[in-house]
Amino acid sequence: MKTVHAVLATAAVGFVLGSSHFTDAQTQEGSVLHPAPVSKTITVTVTELRHAKHGLDKEVLIAQAAGFPNDTCDVITTFDVVKRYEERQTWKGVRQRVDIVIDGNTYPAKFREIGSYPLGLNLACIDFVSPAARAGLQMPVLPLESGASEASLLSYDDREIVSSDPGTPFLNKNGEISSVLTATPNGPLEFTSADDLRRFLKAAAEVSPWPALTRRSLSSI
Questions:
Q1: C-beta of residue 149 within 8 angstroms of C-beta of residue 197
Q2: For the chain, domain boundaries
Q3: pTM, to two decimals
Q4: pLDDT surpassing 50 at residue 118
Q5: CATH 1.25.10 is the classification of domain 2-205
Q6: What does DSSP say about strands 75-77 and 124-128: parallel, antiparallel, or unpaired?
Q7: 60 has which bridge partners?
Q8: H-helix or E-strand containing 108?
Q9: Which is nearest to 107 in space by CA: 33, 159, 188, 47?
């Protein structure tokens, strides 16, 4: 856990230093985007079960990121988290799982395959294994920014960037998602715009999270 946060913190500092000329160029009159509060975000984790020589199996956290609910995907998070899960799926003897964690409660989840991931975007679609879980939680959905914003009018608080986890949505003054903080395990932090999110959701909507059921005609019975 400490190692994961250390890597993210180092990457965040690198991003802030590398993009200081961008934020410094923003006018004071521009719209400042702030991360969504914790109550509006959730956590996606990848956990591995390792067999202990004595006693019960040990759970080891492999990766985690923030996420937020959406009408198309149960949760949207960053692809670099589930990439660890995908890479290890073919390893012999590896037992791992993806979970959605809300208020300390863990819910089994699954990664939705959308063909060619990540479609040029570091985003992933996560669904609850149980369809009833999503309906029962009644999670509030954050709206996407309705109109494309002028990049020259947007600015971010560097301290908020460093203290935010990848997958955290940044909101405009109307409470709409204007961008999402994304990162790669060894790369810089960057932002995915609301327009990019719409493109991602369009692709995700074309892939059902559950197998399609076809009804047989009466003549075939």
A1: no
A2: 2-205
A3: 0.76
A4: yes
A5: no
A6: antiparallel
A7: 48
A8: strand 105-111
A9: 47
